[in-house]
Specification:
Radius of gyration: 18 Å
Shape: elongated
Number of strands: 2
Distance between the termini: 32 Å
Strand content: under 5%
Length: about 170
Amino acid sequence: MPSPSTSTQQPPSASPRPGRRGEWLVVLQFVLFFAFLFLPAWNPWASQDLLASTAYPRLALLAIGGLIALALGVLGLFHLGRNLTPLPYPLDHNQLVTRGVYGWVRHPLYSSQLFAALGWVCYSLSLGHLLLLVVGFLFFDYKARKEEDWLSQRHPEYADYARRVSKLVPRVY
């Protein structure tokens, strides 16, 4: 018998064939990740004096963003367990996980990447990275919506869970 924090799957109505389970979303996620990673910082408004005088607060924001990202990512992986897949399409044996960090936010693995990126934007003051963060947020919102459509088909209780728990930013969105 499943615990109250998980539910067993409903049989899939028609499992999509390979190539239709969100593989292109995973490829796009990697493209965004590497674009963010290798984009040089561009902060045309920030003088050397501003950068020097705000170094410690910016470093603190980077550390906070990194710690939040690490916590969400590690806890998300831990609680997801054998349900983990890089694809937004759920595994055939999946269970709906609503305990732990999944009780705070429905997509902690996506959130962890956004918080890490936010920490870097605050530290680097890079306009280019800020733009990629906005694009990343829109991307993860879309990917989460696709994933939630598939989860709703398998788990009728998903709609109630989605009403109770924020999607990407705990208690905000």
